[in-house]
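Priority: medium. Attachment 1 of 2:
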């Protein structure tokens, strides 16, 4: 793996782990990358208490991560030592660290598994659907980051025209753009001046212009406002307060958005909107 890819992708991974821990309150987040021989290695982490899992190499089909690799699907266990859906080759390392519940999600780019994203807790707490959705959403964001990084490297855009292209944003900087977009849409929603509102909505559109040309599904301004709220982590009640409408109306907009985008959860809807360029 070349140094450019390592640096770009490591920045994205570190940002994702930190943000995931902050968003969920889960104490441990980890990323295991795929080695040339097809095995996994945990090479990035936040919140580990011991070195037991640091740089651990995992065989396909073994443990939580290995099962994710073999099934290409998320895997969660609420009591690791007693879980019967996984094999137990790595019990010593997991128990030395003291992890009890673990959720792991594959990160797939172009049908190739690039790694596995983990969260874990040291106490007997069951990780609910919201945590699983957050981990899945973060994995999808990482997939997009990896894909963008790979595209830049393939085109060698920075080398061909470094003055024009500038430095590629890392994951934290891109997340700041996303946050600014969501907050700007909330400001626009509170404006009474129609002309000013239209101008600011055009600014919002410009933040996603590079990929918006790919958009085929049309979302209304109100639907985009709701999605922007969801992307900021707001609940339906909080979104309703921001937009000056009722929670049931927010739910109605969300149902419409999910139907249009073929999404099953609010977080899938945010990711689908990003893929078509409706959100940054």
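Attachment 2 of 2:
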């Amino acid at each position: 793996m070349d140094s450019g890819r390592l640096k770009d992708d490591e920045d994205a991974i570190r940002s994702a782990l930190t943000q995931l821990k902050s968003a969920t309150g889960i104490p441990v987040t980890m990323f295991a990358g795929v080695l040339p021989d097809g095995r996994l290695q945990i090479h990035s982490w936040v919140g580990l208490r011991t070195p037991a899992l640091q740089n651990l190499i995992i065989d396909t089909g073994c443990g939580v991560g290995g099962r994710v690799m073999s099934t290409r699907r998320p895997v969660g266990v609420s009591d690791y030592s007693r879980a019967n859906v996984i094999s137990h080759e790595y019990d010593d390392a997991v128990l030395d660290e003291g992890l009890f519940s673990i959720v792991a999600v594959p990160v797939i780019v172009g049908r190739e598994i690039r790694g596995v994203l983990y969260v874990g807790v040291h106490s007997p707490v069951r990780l609910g659907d919201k945590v699983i959705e957050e981990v899945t959403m973060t994995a999808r964001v990482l997939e997009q980051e990896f894909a963008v990084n790979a595209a830049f490297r393939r085109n060698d855009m920075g080398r061909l025209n470094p003055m024009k292209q500038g430095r590629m944003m890392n994951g934290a900087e891109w997340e700041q753009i996303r946050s600014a977009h969501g907050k700007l849409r909330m400001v626009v929603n509170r404006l009474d001046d129609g002309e000013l509102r239209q101008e600011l909505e055009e600014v919002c559109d410009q933040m996603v212009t590079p990929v918006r040309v790919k958009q085929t599904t049309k979302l209304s301004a109100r639907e985009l406002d709701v999605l922007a709220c969801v992307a900021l982590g707001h609940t339906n009640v909080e979104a309703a307060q921001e937009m000056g409408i009722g929670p049931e109306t927010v739910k109605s907009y969300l149902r419409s958005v999910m139907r249009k985008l073929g999404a099953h959860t609010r977080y899938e809807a945010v990711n689908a909107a990003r893929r078509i360029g409706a959100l940054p």
